[in-house]
Amino acid sequence: MAGTIENYGRKLEELARAQGLDYYPVQFEEVPDSFMMEVAVYGLPVRMPHWSFGVRYIYQLIQHRMGHSRLFEVVFPGNPGRAYLARGNSVPENTLVVAHVLGHADFSRNNALFQRSQQEVGYRIVDQAAGHARQIGAAMDEHGQERVEKILDAALALEAHIDTFRGLRRERYPEYVEDPAFNDDTFRQRFHQLPGDERPPRQHEPRQRASLPPQPERDLLWFIAQYAPELEGWERDIFLAVREESFYFYPVFACQIMNEGWASYWHARLLREADFIPQSEYLDAIKTHSDVVRPHAADRQASLAINPYHLGFCMWERIIDDLGMEKAMQIRSQDDDFSFIRNYLTEELAEELKLFRFKASKDGAIEVVDRDINALRDAILAPKYNFGAPAIVVRHVETDGTLHLVHEHETDGRGLDVKRAEKVLDYVHRIWRRPVKLETVDGRGEPRVIEAPSA
Q1: Spatial separation of the C-alpha atoms in residues 54 and 47, rounded to whole Å
Q2: Which of 21, 133, 207, 422 could be bridged to 16 by S-S, CB 3.0 to 4.6 A?
Q3: Cα–Cα distance between 204 and 409 in angstroms, integer?
Q4: Is residue 231 part of a domain?
């Protein structure tokens, strides 16, 4: 960073620690705006190559050029943390960004979900992702780009289908059903072995193979990596690399409102108390703060989408005012967005922020559906369930190897886009190399069975 920002950064860190923030060291680096956009799209500074990231890049570029988005920074939790700042930022903007990053760093070090993720995945995801990219580049050299891209097509199409409750490191299922005779109590077994017991020894039935899977399996990446009938070692490694990165990204997704709100609260507080920042630069930084946490887009007076910065910032301000900083830090450590919204988005705050549930009619008119607080909470959280993906489970692998999937639409409350589902199933079929069948409902709620290859 330039000298002025380096000086401000050191003083902001001292102020943050004096205020009780606790975080791993953060490495700051200024980078060109184009690199910032690449990092935001790929999710990491260096990541496995795939055409889908190019599609996302074009979308992000269009949004940026239309004035709908601007990237000030990208942060990667870890020990140390990494923060990339856009070179085009002004000194006041970067001053705010440094304070914002310190809030993120405190959140990621102390939040239970982030802690568990970093303990499982590791604290150097940037280096690990670069290793995955090298691994996949080597696979392309050895096996050809087309073969590797087919694996990546399937793995990245399923990247949200993990089971964070089961953890990153898992053992394969038991191969056989456990024989109840082996669970007979020790005393009875020893009694039957005493001299004079003339009964013939118990003959055990042939061991019965366990069904696959023994219960519905949500971690599709893990299941396919472990049980695809003809998957080669290098193909399995790619699936597991995508899965590992998904475990890293999950807390960012599941704590977005809390995390962005916490960072926004602390950048505002630190700047307010940073008496070493000249008044003119402070005012410019606060203008940037207002742009970040505004409730709606620049050219609109209402928005159908929640701005996580605005909602999180307002909720943390209310929590700290009403419950105190000690309680706020406890919530920061223990909660995720689900418990945060359900427990601390009150009717009073929702009314103050005008957080209504809307419905758009065919002619484009917008109407308020209701002001019910529980319905509002459900509407905010609905896109976050199951990592934002439909709830798909492996129900069974049939004797001919057919992979039988079921969409638990009652759980996620949505039907599938059939065309997209057919495309994903085609990707999965190329890797499973046996028929794949999915029971689901379409957008109208009508039962559908999608098969690959198509019947």
Answers
A1: 12
A2: 21
A3: 42
A4: yes
